[in-house]
Write a structure and sequence with these properties.
about 500 residues; Peptidase_aspartic_dom_sf; 8 helices; seven-stranded mixed beta sheet; mainly beta; transmembrane; Immunoregulatory_rcpt-like; Cathepsin D, subunit A, domain 1; membrane
């Protein structure tokens, strides 16, 4: 941001403005946000914009405290392209407030993926012309770098290791499994959640059943037959009615922590080890404009064994990420997006976003990238099978005797705080779950140094209009010399580097 040497780690998922944490947020020089990087607001300009950015636009579904953010404009380096006057919202001292009154600082800001029916964000002025701030996918399309103002994303996970994928102007078809849900607007405009259930995919169930439906509205007649939920990559949990979380938790060895509005795993229970390693998943059933029968997206329990750390917990504490806080805004955040593909075409005449099942760890190492056309209304699934993509990763035969520990994944790079926490805690039960939660970039109290772990950002570049059009939108993959590429706003990534090939299109992986 501002110059090529300034890299800042961001969660991907905001709409309209990108949210950055200012240097002054860390008043004593360092704080949790320092690991991801903070922004020097002497770069760029406020641009005469008088309207503040309300905190409700940052992390949906959470109770955020503090003054509205300050709007700002600055340039953003996106490997070979400089996006000028990007719409920003700067955070100075704001925090997350939990139901018990405890507050937690932010660990990172959030990258905007565009805005509904817009290529920029316009701010009217009483005494002059409107001020236009750039949105990255709109700018890329308007300046002919991509075929459309669009994106395709699968956040992925750290444990098991599933490298993330974020493309502007296209998507990795390998990340799309099964039927695709099509909705008007963008992910933050919401989708109808019809039900939540528990599905056992393996031959041995860690539950007293093989499937359990009806958990969404169980014990709460006011929910009726469905619930509108928003999808937000800036938010960490799935924020749902307390009755829904309790219905799910009734089948798990967890205990509700009323101060945090979260559920803590009972690591001393034998069922804990069985469930988090089993071939079972929490299933979310959706309906939309494109389907009359509900479509399921499954999140394995292996992905729902996350870890709280400082400042929310004085030692690493495994938790189940169903969150309740009384706000009556229901959100599926990064805990859900570990296993979901999401994308959108922001063209004013298209105004469509997509949701689909994403695969597990066993997928092709080479992305199968497809450009999104200017007026494309849907995306196409790839050839992966979801169950096969998890084969050999989870235990679908019998309960394991142990679970992964922090030591097994330290190669990914934990922060000192989590390393010290694991050294202090010699009990095996307390170590359980560290490999997931301490590094997954999902809990509000996780290590900021790994906030974007496994998430790569890519651009589907567009040829100039004076060159002939291609018939196919599927493009081959090659490599590029990363040492020649500038620093950018999101890091790190593990997908293969990309290069300019064929001559009409370019595709690059953004470096860390």
């Amino acid at each position: 941001m501002g110059n090529e040497e300034s890299s800042i780690g961001l969660y991907p998922g905001s709409a309209w403005e990108s949210w950055l944490i200012q240097d002054r947020y860390c008043r004593k020089g360092t704080c949790f946000a320092s690991e991801a990087g903070t922004y020097d607001n002497s770069s760029g300009t406020q641009g005469g914009i008088q309207m503040p950015a309300d905190l409700s636009g940052f992390m949906l579904g959470l109770d955020l405290k503090g003054n509205p953010a300050t709007r700002h404009l600055d340039r953003m380096w996106l490997n070979g392209a400089i996006v000028e006057n990007v719409s920003l919202a700067l955070l100075e001292s704001q925090k997350i407030k939990y139901p018990g009154g405890q507050t937690s600082p932010f660990f990172a800001g959030c990258l905007s993926l565009g805005g509904r029916r817009a290529i920029n964000q316009s701010f009217s002025q009483d005494d002059g012309p409107a001020i236009n701030a750039s949105l990255v996918p709109g700018w890329m399309w308007e300046h002919e770098w991509t075929r459309s103002s669009s994106f395709g994303m699968h956040i992925g996970s750290v444990q098991p290791d599933i490298s993330g994928s974020l493309w502007f102007g296209g998507y990795d078809q390998n990340r799309v499994i099964g039927e695709v849900l099509n909705m008007n607007g963008g992910p933050r405009d919401g989708i109808t959640l019809r039900d939540i259930g528990i599905d056992v995919i393996g031959t041995k169930s860690p539950f007293e059943f093989d499937s359990k439906d009806g958990l969404l509205a169980n014990g709460n007649s006011s929910i009726g037959g469905s619930l509108k939920v928003l999808v937000d990559g800036c938010s960490p949990y799935f924020t749902l009615p307390r009755s829904t979380c309790d219905s799910i938790a009734a089948h798990l060895p967890v205990k509700f922590n009323k101060d945090l509005g979260l559920y803590i795993w009972d690591t001393k229970s034998d069922r804990y080890k069985e469930i988090i390693n089993s071939a079972s998943a929490l299933s979310f059933s959706f309906i939309s404009n494109s389907n009359t029968d509900p479509i399921k997206i499954r999140v394995p329990f292996m992905h729902l064994n996350l870890t709280l750390s400082a400042p929310l917990s004085d030692k690493p504490t495994p938790y189940f990420p169903c969150h309740s806080n009384g706000k009556d805004q229901y959100v599926l955040g990064r805990a859900f997006l570990q296993d979901a593909f999401v994308g959108a075409n922001w063209h004013p005449d298209i105004d469509t976003w997509w949701l689909a099942q994403a695969p597990g760890p066993n997928i092709q190492a080479t992305p199968n990238v497809v450009s999104i056309g200017e007026r494309d209304k849907t995306v196409s699934k790839g050839g992966n099978d979801w169950k096969v993509s998890w084969s050999g990763v989870w235990d679908d035969q019998e309960a394991p005797s142990s679970t992964p520990t922090a030591d097994s994944t330290d190669k990914k790079g934990d922060t000192k705080g989590n390393e010290e926490g694991s050294k202090e805690d010699d009990q095996e039960d307390d170590k359980v779950g560290m490999s997931v939660g301490a590094k997954a970039g999902i809990g509000a109290g996780i290590a900021a140094a790994v906030i974007a772990a496994g998430v790569g950002v890519f651009l589907c570049w567009r040829r100039r209009r004076n060159q002939p059009q291609e018939e196919s939108t599927t493009e081959p993959v090659a490599t590029v010399d990363e040492s020649k590429l500038p620093s950018v706003v999101l890091y790190p990534q593990e997908l293969p580097s990309q290069e300019v090939q064929p001559p009409y299109y370019q595709r690059f992986e953004l470096p860390s």
